[in-house]
Each structure stands twice: as structure tokens, then as C-alpha cells.
Specification:
With 773 residues, the protein is of the alpha/beta class. The protein has 32 helices and 22 strands. It binds adenosine-5'-triphosphate and magnesium ion. Its EC number is 5.6.2.4.
């Protein structure tokens, strides 16, 4: 037996060595599912399976690259190169480049990103004269996306009275028409959106049996990671391709299914045994990733879900520290706590930044964390959010390049036909769009044939349009011989885009120029990298495809050491020694949008399970009492998920202060109720711990709540009440002095003090650190 097999435990070896036929591995987080998949591929190759016959589908392209690297270590780099590995989208985009022509697509079809799709949809909604407040383009896009992922074509849509009625009920009776227009326009532009990459693959495999047969024969072994998050469209592709040889291996964890809002269907896992005959079922139980405390805490959470497969997860790893829970008054304070804690841990244990991750429910939470990390000079990287390639200046340059590859690309054309300004206005563009729709041609083709159509465009504008077309064509000619970098640099200059930002001269303009430079550097790297691959040319088409399908994690080159910031959704499959899960508050996590049904709440709980199980050594959960949301400061309550963790795995860093004194008000602003103490029925008594005082924010809030109450008991200054004019005092910073005068009452009480060093200062007694001598 080869050595690498011994890097697996017995339970893991079984699926790796499984003979032909379908198999499924269902197991909890960190139990080695991804490792099993990787080693199985290496094993198959060592058994003589040709690498050309293996297809592996992963959650990110980065995961695919890492698996490939590991496999290369085992079986050798040259063999590993031939493996088809990547996300569903990137793998099937590649397939459609070969065979999409059968569906009428050019092999150089453009991939529209979300922004392109949304722009096109808002243009269509406008052209149809619809109310954009009712037909919100994002909602419309979501609808169309979910139709496509359920394989509901326009025709199928109209044939389904339930769908038509649902849209009519939602006051969107013209959804079907929008859908039809959108599909037509994408097709005419030689473009596919993300969902098309799956939908068209399905169409191709269904309508062309010879194509299906070809790929069935090619992909004799198919392996899918994170199977719990496949949608219907993906499920059907896998089913079709594996139908002949039935060598399908899927691994997943129903407890980590977190993409149902995007159409992921957990029943794909649940029905696997019905879909295939003689399924080899494997379970893994030992977690290698995390400490006992983390594994057990995660188990205690997920057991609250009623809808789940029975699973055991245990670990022989150390018990590890307890999960630390921390409360802050505001989100800014939360950021400071996280940054401070990362800083301390780094210093104490000499850890690299890459050992830390901060995970949140929504992207907007990153700002407070970022601010705090910057103040501490801790380098970080944000994954997700607006990607580099979606920045305006970058998209402008990319749009020129897209047009070079595919001049029909309508969204690219509309972006740049008048950028930099060349006197081609909106009304001209409108006329061109109408003509393009009328003749069923692309806008570019219309411009190219202006002489033959009577469009009521004046001769000056016609000439400008002619110049534009001539420029793009000159780029196309260059593209026949130049590599991607040479072409891109030429285009950035000759199109005038670079000059436009240079002329601008503002810091923003310069920043944009620098970004374009960064893009060109990236293209150069890409060209160098592609040269090493046998079947790649390093041309701009390849680069654009890479960009279009880059998932948010793919930018990570891993060459510099940074703290990782990302949403929990994106963190699936990853692991970090130290993990901070921030914003553990009701309405944020679980999200207010996802608490309407039990199944939504269960998905939020699975999301929490995913978050916690990313941690290897230490997990922190933080929450705030007040948070800015939608520009307003709102009260926040700790997330129910904190309470759901068995308390023996938790250490509260900010225990609730309760004391023997009678609170003046019934609202407890000093902290939430200490639930663990309540549960244990312990009396809430004793004196407040020293040094725990409400901060300014809390005081302000308290004053606002009950202004007439004046100074809250127990929270005033530490100064002796006997302090009076003439008293001798000592101040920590200014030294000895004598009180000249006292004025004001309550929180405003001030003392004028003449210090021995000579200064006279007026101090607010509430803050002054004075000792009466
Ligand atoms: N037999 C083993 N011996 C040592 N380490 C292992 C073993 N199996 C897995 N690991 C390590 O445990 C960690 C978790 O493994 P892996 O990522 O494959 O788990 P997973 O089940 O895919 O997790 P997730 O559900 O989060 O995707 C990895 O660091 C992996 O290298
Ligand atoms: Mg995994």
C-alpha cells in the first residue's frame, strides 16, 4: 500500500479504496471529507485510471487548485495537470466553449457577471416602460435566476400557471415578458449569465445525445465536494454525466447546507441512495480540525435542529480553551476588542496574521473591524464584497477587451461607447438599441452597417460611431498576434481610458490609474503563468474567462500574511486556528430576514455551525448592545445561538454586573441578564466588581432614559464626598494640589485645582482621578 494511504484513518480509507460504483460520504465538519476526495483521486490515478477521465467539482477554484497541488505531490505534476477540476461554473463554461455552438453560441461567448445582468435587466424594464419600483431589478434577477436553476425556461414558465399567478399576485404580471426579453438579449449578445452556464449545459446534454455520450465516456469518474449545496441544475448535470459508468462519489454534510436561498437542495443528499443502485455509504466520525471544546459546542448547537441526519462527531484533539464570549457597547468597540485580541494573541504566541479569521453574517459588518485593524496596523484581506474586477475603472478596461473578443457583447459596448466621452449621447444609443432589437442584431453590427439603415443620426455622430468601430477592429487585428498583456496595455492607452483618469488629476483619479496598472500587472502574471501550461495560449480570451469565473476566494494568492475577513457563507470548507464570529445578535444572526419559518431558522443555525467549526484552536463570539444599522443606532440583544451552546464550553469575558444595590431604573443597561446564573437559580447579589463601570455611551443612554434621576448610584466619580474647597489632593498625572473652588452638581461637578507644579486646572470630578490627602 502506498504511503499516502496511511495518512488516513480506517474510516477514511474505506471510501478512498472503494471500488467502482456510486458512493457517498456523509460526515460532520472537519472529519476529512475533502481529504477523502483528494486522496481518492490520487488513488484512482495510481490504479491506472487516466487523469483525463476524472472530473472533480469543488466549491471554489482555490479549493480545486489546492487539491490539485496535493494530488501532484502524490502522483506527479504532469499527470495532475490533465484533471478537470474546479467549480461547476468554471468546468461547464469550458465544456460550453467546446460544444456551445450546437446551441447557437459562439465559442467566444461572454460571461455576464451579476452586475452585467442587473444592468441589462434595468434597461429592459425601462424600455418596456414598467415601474422600476415594482419591477425592482434585483428582485427580478433573483426570480429569473431561480427559474433557471430549476430549469424553468420561458416556455416552461408560461406553462406553469402557479408561477404566472405568483408573479401576478406580486403585482408583476409582465415577468414572463421580461424573462423572454432578457434571454433574447443575452443570446443576441453572445452572452451567458452564471445560471446559463448550468442551464445551457443541461440543455446541451439533453438535446444532443452524442454530446452527452462523449462526456459520459470522458468523465468516467466524477467526484463532488460539498454535495449538500448543489442546486437542481447541478444535480441533473452530475446525474446525466454519471449515468453510464455510475462512478460517482459525493461528499457532504447536511448540517452544513447553507445555500438554499440560492436554490441549493438538501434533498439531493437525502435522495442519493434512491437515485443510484448499490450505493456505498460511508460515515466519518473523527474530527481532526478542532479542539474538544469546539467540537462539543458545535454538536450541542446542531442538535437543536430537528431536520437532520444522525451523526456522531468526536475528536481526540486537546480539550483546548473555552469558547470566549464578549459583549461590547457598540460595533466600534467590538472592532476594537477583536483587533486588540488578535494583537495580543499574535504577540503572546508569535503567530502569523494568517492564523486569524473574522467571520460575519453580512458584508457590511466588516467596516468596523477594518477600522480597528487598520488602527492597530494589522494587515487584513477582505474576501467578497465588491471585487477588484467590479471597480468601475477596471470594468471599463475589461469592457474594451470583452468587445475585442466578442463585439456583440451589449453590456460591454454600452459601458464604453461613450467612455471616455466621444460625443455619442444617450439618444443615439437608444436609437441604436431600438434598431438592434428590430433587426435582431447586436448594436455593434448595427453601427457597422449604419450606411444601410436610415436611423436619423446626424453625419457628425455617424463619423464618431465609425471611428469607434474602427478602433475596436484595430484592436481585434492586434489580438490575432499579441499576447494578453501587450494587447491590454495597448487598449488601455489607445482607448483613452488611462488618459482620462490621468487628466482628472485628483487623488481618486490617480488611485484609478494605479488600479489599472495593477490590472495590467495581473494580466502579465497571467500570461507568464499560462506559458507553463501545455494547452493554453495566454490570450485575452482566457484571461477574461478566468476573471469572470473567479470566485471571491480566488484572489488569494497566499503570498502575504493577512488576517482574513469574510462572510460565513464564504468560509465554508476553510479552517483557521483562531476564529472570531462577530455580530452574534438577534436580527443580525439569526438574520431578521431568515426567521420567518422553522426551516429558515434551521438554516441560520447550520450557518452558525459552519462558522464555529472553522476554528481549530480558539473561537470567540462577540456581540454588541448597540449597533448602527441603516444609519441608526439600534438596541441589540445577544443571539439565541449563544445561549444554545452548552454553557460548560463557554467562558464569558464580560460577565454581567449585578449587585446588591437597587437599580434606579428597570432597564438593565449594564449588561444583559446573565442567563447561566439565572438557569442555576443563583441569587443575584454581591457588590459590583470593582473597575466595572458604565462607559460614556451607557451613561448617555441612561441619562436619556431617565433624565430626572440625575446621577446614577454607584457610578459617579471615585472622589471622596468630603472633597471641599481647600482640600489637598493628589492627581495621578498632575501630582499634588489644592482645591480652590467646586462648582456644579451631579455629573457636572467640577473642581478648580491649583497644582504644586504651578498650573491651575478645572477638572470634571466624574473623570478626575483624584485622591483626597
Ligand atoms: N486522517 C487524518 N490525519 C490527520 N489530519 C487529518 C486527517 N483527516 C483530515 N485531517 C485534517 O483535518 C482537517 C479537516 O479535514 P477536511 O478539510 O478534509 O474536513 P472536511 O470534512 O472536508 O471539513 P468541512 O466539513 O469543514 O469541509 C484538515 O486540516 C485535514 O488535513
Ligand atoms: Mg471539506
Amino acid at each position: 500500500m502506498e504511503n499516502y494511504i496511511n495518512e488516513l484513518n480506517e474510516a477514511q480509507k474505506a471510501p478512498v479504496l472503494h471500488k467502482d460504483g456510486p458512493l457517498m460520504v456523509i460526515a460532520g465538519a472537519g472529519s476529512g471529507k475533502t481529504r477523502v476526495l483528494t486522496y481518492r483521486i490520487a488513488y484512482l490515478m495510481s490504479q491506472g485510471v487516466d487523469s483525463f477521465n476524472i472530473l472533480a467539482l469543488t466549491f471554489t477554484n482555490k479549493a480545486a487548485r489546492e487539491m490539485k497541488k496535493r494530488i501532484a505531490d502524490i502522483v506527479g505534476a504532469s499527470e495532475a495537470k490533465n484533471l478537470w477540476m474546479g467549480t461547476f461554473h468554471s468546468v461547464f463554461a469550458k465544456l460550453l466553449r467546446f460544444d456551445g455552438d450546437k446551441l447557437g453560441y459562439p465559442s467566444n461567448f461572454t460571461i455576464y457577471d451579476t452586475q452585467d445582468s442587473q444592468r441589462l435587466l434595468s434597461a429592459i424594464i425601462k424600455e418596456m416602460g414598467l415601474d422600476k419600483d415594482i419591477y425592482k431589478y434585483k428582485q427580478v434577477q433573483n426570480r429569473i435566476s431561480s427559474y433557471k436553476n430549476s430549469l424553468i425556461t420561458v416556455k416552461a414558465y408560461y406553462n406553469n400557471p402557479d408561477l404566472v399567478e405568483a408573479d401576478a399576485m406580486a403585482k408583476r404580471p409582465r415577468m414572463g415578458e421580461i424573462y423572454q426579453n432578457y434571454v433574447d438579449r443575452c443570446f443576441k449578445a453572445g452572452a451567458m449569465d452564471f445560471d446559463d452556464l448550468l442551464l445551457r449545459t443541461n440543455e446541451l446534454l439533453t438535446r444532443f445525445p452524442e454530446v452527452l455520450a462523449k462526456y459520459q465516456d470522458r468523465f468516467r469518474y466524477i467526484l463532488v465536494d460539498e454535495y449538500q449545496d448543489t442546486n437542481h441544475s447541478q444535480y441533473l448535470i452530475v446525474k446525466a454525466l454519471s449515468d453510464r459508468f455510475q462512478n460517482i462519489c459525493v461528499v457532504g454534510d447536511d448540517a452544513q447546507s447553507i445555500y438554499s436561498f440560492r436554490g441549493a437542495n438538501i434533498s439531493n443528499i437525502l435522495n442519493f441512495q434512491k437515485d443510484y443502485d448499490n450505493v456505498g455509504m460511508y460515515r466519518l466520525e473523527q474530527n481532526y480540525r478542532s479542539t474538544k471544546n469546539i467540537v462539543n459546542a458545535a454538536n450541542s448547537i446542531i442538535s437543536k435542529n430537528t431536520n437532520q441526519l444522525e451523526k456522531v462527531v468526536w475528536t481526540s484533539n486537546d480539550e483546548g480553551p473555552l469558547i470566549k464570549v464578549h459583549r461590547s457597547p457598540t460595533d466600534a468597540e467590538e472592532g476594537r476588542f477583536v483587533a486588540g485580541s488578535i494583537f495580543e494573541n499574535k504577540m503572546q504566541s508569535q503567530l502569523p496574521n494568517g492564523n486569524f479569521a473574522v467571520l460575519y453574517r453580512t458584508n457590511s459588518q466588516s467596516r468596523a473591524i477594518e477600522d480597528a485593524l487598520r488602527k492597530r496596523d494589522i494587515p487584513y484581506r477582505i474576501y467578497g464584497g465588491l471585487s477588484f474586477y467590479q471597480r468601475k475603472e477596471i470594468k471599463d478596461v475589461l469592457s474594451y477587451l470583452r468587445l475585442v473578443i466578442n463585439p456583440k457583447d451589449e453590456e460591454a459596448l454600452k459601458r464604453i461607447i461613450n467612455f471616455p466621452a466621444r460625443g455619442i449621447g444617450q439618444s443615439t444609443l437608444d436609437k441604436l438599441t431600438v434598431a438592434a432589437n428590430h433587426y435582431n442584431r447586436s448594436i455593434f453590427e448595427v453601427i457597422d452597417n449604419l450606411e444601410r439603415i436610415d436611423l436619423k443620426i446626424n453625419s457628425g455622430t455617424k463619423r464618431k460611431l465609425g471611428d469607434f468601430v474602427a478602433m475596436i477592429k484595430s484592436f481585434q487585428i492586434m489580438n490575432e498576434s499579441a499576447d494578453a498583456f501587450t494587447l491590454a496595455e495597448h487598449v488601455a492607452k489607445k482607448s483613452g481610458v488611462l488618459l482620462e483618469f490621468k487628466k482628472d488629476g485628483t487623488p481618486e483619479g490617480i488611485g484609478k490609474m494605479e488600479n489599472i496598472e495593477e490590472l495590467l500587472n495581473g494580466i502579465k502574471d497571467f500570461v507568464e503563468g499560462q506559458k507553463e501550461l501545455a494547452d493554453a495560449k495566454g490570450d485575452i480570451g482566457e484571461f477574461l474567462e478566468d476573471v469572470a469565473l473567479a470566485t471571491d476566494l480566488d484572489k488569494d494568492t497566499g503570498d502575504d500574511d493577512r488576517v482574513a475577513l469574510m462572510t460565513i457563507h464564504l468560509a465554508k470548507g476553510l479552517e483557521f486556528p483562531h476564529v472570531y464570529i462577530v455580530g452574534m445578535e438577534e436580527d443580525l444572526f439569526p438574520s431578521a430576514m431568515s426567521m420567518n419559518t422553522r426551516s429558515e431558522l434551521e438554516e441560520e443555525r447550520r450557518l452558525f455551525y459552519v462558522a464555529l467549526t472553522r476554528a481549530e484552536k480558539q473561537a470567540y463570539l462577540t456581540y454588541t448592545q448597540n449597533r448602527y444599522r441603516w444609519g441608526k443606532l439600534v438596541d441589540a440583544e445577544p443571539s439565541r445561538f449563544i445561549e444554545e451552546i452548552d454553557e460548560k464550553y463557554i467562558e464569558n469575558l464580560t460577565p454581567v454586573q449585578r449587585s446588591g444595590y437597587t437599580p434606579l431604573i428597570d432597564v438593565d443597561i449594564f449588561g444583559d441578564v446573565d442567563k447561566s446564573r439565572l438557569r442555576q437559580n443563583k441569587p443575584l447579589q454581591g457588590t459590583p466588581p470593582s473597575g466595572v463601570r458604565p462607559n460614556e455611551n451607557q451613561l448617555r443612554k441612561l441619562r436619556k432614559l431617565k433624565p430626572e434621576l440625575g446621577t446614577p448610584v454607584g457610578n459617579t466619580n471615585s472622589v471622596d464626598p468630603n472633597l471641599s474647597e481647600g482640600s489637598l489632593v493628589n492627581h495621578t498625572r498632575f501630582g499634588r494640589g489644592q482645591v480652590l473652588k467646586i462648582e456644579g452638581v451631579g455629573n457636572d461637578r467640577k473642581a478648580e485645582i491649583k497644582f504644586d507644579k504651578g498650573d491651575i486646572k478645572k477638572l470634571l470630578l466624574r473623570f478626575a482621578k483624584l485622591e483626597v490627602l
